[in-house]
Amino acid sequence: MSDPRDTFDPLIRKAFQSEGLKSYYLKFRGGNEKGEGYIGDIVFVDVFATKLDGAETVYSLVLKTGGKNKSMRQIVRLGFEREIYIYSKVIPAFWQLQEEYGMVKFASIPRCYLTILTDSQETLLLQDIKSVGFQLYDRKTVMNLDHIKLVLKVLGQWHALSFGLQTKHRLEFSRLTSKWKCPAEEIFVKSHVGKWMNLAQKHLLSVLEESGESELLLKYKQKTDNHMATSIVKDILYMEKEHVVITHGDCWNNNLMFKYENTSEASPTDLCILDFQISTLSSPVIDLSYFIYAVSSTDQLEHFDSLLQIYHQSLSHYLRQMDCDPQNIFSFTDLLDHWSKYSAYGAMINPLIVCDNLVDKDNAASYANINEVYESIIESVDKKHSELFSSRLIAVARHFTKDV
Fold it and tell me: Which among 17, 194, 241, 323 would be 20 to 30 A from 3, CA to CA?
C-alpha cells in the first residue's frame, strides 16, 4: 500500500505555497464511514506546520477525491465537477459582487484551499470545520425550530446572491451557468438512487393504506397524478425559467453543520453548508422543499407560514444590501406561487431522505453498493423505527396535499 503522505505532500505544497511554511508533518484521522452518504472518498488530516518566522500552526483539513468506483464513475465525475466549479468560480463571483456593495462575504461554507480537476483526477482540499466547533445535528431526530430558522436564513442569503448577480451582472451570471448539466437528474432520476426513491414512494403509499389514511392516500394520488417520484422530480428540475437561482441541491442533515456558544445544543449560533455536488439552476423551492420536508414532522410544519417568512425576510435583506428591490425580483407572492408549483420536488424525495436519516449504520448503503441493498434498507428502517418512520412520512404527505 502506498504511503498516504505521497498523495498529500504535493497537495500541501501547492495549497499552502503562499503561507510561508518552513516544515510540516501530517497526522491522519481516518476517512468517511459507511452510511455517511459521500460520493467519492474522504480523508481527514491535520497539518502541523512551522512557518518561516518560527510560528507554529495546525491546519485541519478534509481531502475529497473522486475515488475509483467504476459503477458510479459518471455520477462522481459530474458531482465533483459541479462542486469544484462552485468553489472556484461561483463563490468568487458572489464575493466580488458583495465587495462591490460593501457587504461582508458569505461565510457559511468551509474554506477551500485547493481544487484540482483533470481527466483522471477530482480533488478538493477543504477546511475541516469540526476543528472549529461545528457538528452535525442528530439525523434520526427532527430538527427544532431554531436550527430550521437558521438554515432558512442562510439559504435566503445564498439564493439572494444568485438573484443579485443576475440583476447587476446578467451576462456574467449567464456565463457562469450556461451549458450546465444537471447532477440532480443524474442522481435522483437516472441512477440507483432513483430506484430507491420510487421504492420509498411505494412504501409511503403502503403506509397510508395500512394506517387507515384512505382520504390522504386519495389526495396524494390526485396531487401526483399517480406519477412515479422520479418522473415528477425530473419535470420540476427544468420547469422554472424566470426566477432561478444556483441551488445547493442536497440540503439535508448530512450537509449541515452547526456551532453553539455553550454546551446547550438547542439554539445554534452559526451554520456551515457542505457538499455542493448536486447544485443546479432552478427554483429556490428546490432547496426549500427538500430541506423543510427532510427535517420536519407535524410540529415543525405547523410553523410553515412563519418559516417561509423568515426565509424571505433574509433573502430580502440581502437583496437590499445589493441595491435590489425584492418585490420586483422575487416577492413573497412569487415564493408562494413557486411553492405551489414546485414543492412536490421535496415531497417526492422525502421518503428516501427520511429512510436514509433513520437507517442504522450497520444497515446503511454506500453509493458503491446501493443497487444491491435499497430494498433491505427500507425494510430495516420500517422494522426498527416503524412508528417514527410512518409518522414523518404521513406528516409531510398531509402538508403536501393540504390544498387538494
Answer: 17
Cα–Cα dist 288/310, whole Å: 12
Question: Which of 271, 244, 233, 234 shows the shortest CA–CA distance to 255?
Answer: 271
User: CA neighbours within 13 Å on the CB side: how many for 58?
Assistant: 10
pTM comes to 0.94
Helix (H, G, I), strand (E, B) or coil at 178: coil
Angle at 86 between CA 81 and CA 89, to 5 degrees: 105
Residue 6 CB contacts under 8 Å (≥ 6 apart), including other chains: none
The CATH code of domain 133-401 reads 3.90.1200
Helices then strands, each counted (H, E), the chain:
17, 10
Which residues neighbour 224 within 8 Å (Cβ) at sequence distance 6 or greater? 232, 344, 348
Question: Which pLDDT tens digits describe the chain residue by residue (404 residues)?
Answer: 456 667 788 888 888 888 888 999 999 988 766 555 566 789 999 999 999 999 999 999 999 998 776 667 788 899 999 999 999 999 999 999 999 999 999 999 999 999 999 988 899 999 999 999 999 999 999 999 999 999 999 999 999 999 999 999 999 999 999 988 889 998 899 888 898 899 999 999 999 999 999 999 999 999 999 999 999 999 999 999 999 999 999 999 999 999 999 877 889 999 999 999 999 999 999 999 999 999 999 999 999 999 999 999 999 999 999 999 999 999 999 999 999 999 999 999 999 999 989 988 766 655 555 555 667 778 888 777 888 899 999 999 999 999 86
With CA atoms as reference, report the closest residue to 51 among 11, 24, 27, 12: 24
Rg from Cα positions in the chain: 21
**Domains of the chain by residue range:** 4-124, 133-401
In the chain, the largest separation of any two C-alpha atoms, in whole Å, equals 72
Cα 248–chain centre separation: 5
Q: Give the sheet arrangement for strand 122-127, strand by strand.
A: 21-31, 41-51, 56-65, 122-127, 112-117
Asked whether the beta carbons of 39 and 72 are under 8 A apart, the reply is yes
